[in-house]
Amino acid sequence: MTYQGVLTKMRTEFKDPIQYYLVFENDFIHMNQLLTKTIQMEFVGYQCLNCSLNKPIYRQGFCKSCFFDVPQAADWIIKPELSKAHLDEEERDLEYEKRVQLQPHIVYLANSSNVKVGVTRKSQVPTRWIDQGAHEAIEIVEVPNRYLAGITEIALKDYVADKTNWRNMLKNDVKDEDLVVWRNRLKAHIPAEAQDYYIETNTETQLVFPVQHYPKKPKSLNIVKAASYTGTLVGLKGQYLIFEDETVFNVRSNEGLVVKLSLL
Ligand SMILES: [Zn+2]
């Protein structure tokens, strides 16, 4: 069986274990069913997620000119504290910015290789945690817009990491933390504007990934360079495919690439 299409991040379902789907224009592949199967992946070309042209992907699935143009790739996406829609100020497209920024946002703690603080739209819980490969997470603040979430994250960064180590996440080199204890400890450092939105009473969410065997030394696959790769799928974690020979492939960071997948 052969599938061809442009990569976008895998869709997921929060089940035990997490279910993963690769969605192409005319097909979707339930990736959990490919575990233990041998897959060939071939690089075919590029298809920018905005203009659809076969131009090298710059970042986030966009070619360079789209990346600096489309509202989905503005700075406030990565740096929520730069959000300005609540002030009625336009960055690239005020209507889009209002729609995305002026909705409930969550500041959370997630543990994927260490405990980190992060921000997401409420509608993206627990998808965001799955995408990061976190095995446990908890909401700490729910605020009405992205800006408030951003300044809360900035304030908490002095007391908790905001980055994770993808190698440790894939090696499953992790330990369980009591995120309720972390949350209670961080409460005092939430900025005054967001104190009223603190979530006092919730508990950890646990996430279980379909991984049969974790790599000891994960090697990242560059499919553009390799042109073709064949391997046996042994796990799905975060947005990574994990293969038996310890090769790993981050679907999300390869958005916009057109690939051909063959089941051998
Ligand atoms: Zn483009």
UniProtKB/TrEMBL annotation:
Listed Pfam families: DUF2797 (PF10977)
Organism: Bizionia sediminis
Protein name: DUF2797 domain-containing protein
Source species, domain of life: Bacteria
InterPro entries associated with the record: DUF2797
